[in-house]
Amino acid sequence: MPQHLARHRSADLFLDSLPYNAHTTASDALWAGLPVLTSPGEGFASRVAASLLRANDLAELVASDLDDYREIAVALAGDPPRLASLKERLLRAHRGAPLFDMRKLTTDLENAYQTIQARHQVGLATAHIDIS
Length: 132
Hints:
By secondary structure, the protein is mainly α. It folds into two domains: about 1-95, Glycogen Phosphorylase B (Rossmann fold); about 100-130, no CATH class. It is built from six helices and two strands. A two-stranded parallel ribbon has the order 1-2.
């Protein structure tokens, strides 16, 4: 895993490709500080990178279609300062974005499980549990 993440750190931009898209590999790239450019597809796995980017305030890296994807990729390739800025924003996100806050995620998930169990014990029907 350390070598895998180190490879991500040596790149400038991760090009997430259709139709399947990257899913866990996109998450690894973001964890390593590598911006990901994606265009979400129809299936669950092909939309994961877009969700991760939006959760980290990087929605400008979610292309609306393949033409938009191509335009963004070419623009970024010709703009090293913008790429550097995206990397810096991503690294700053490590200090506060939900994707990178494992302690909060663990606590929120444990609280959700406790809420579900408490509801079940008193005979309440299943319901949406908000963990945010």
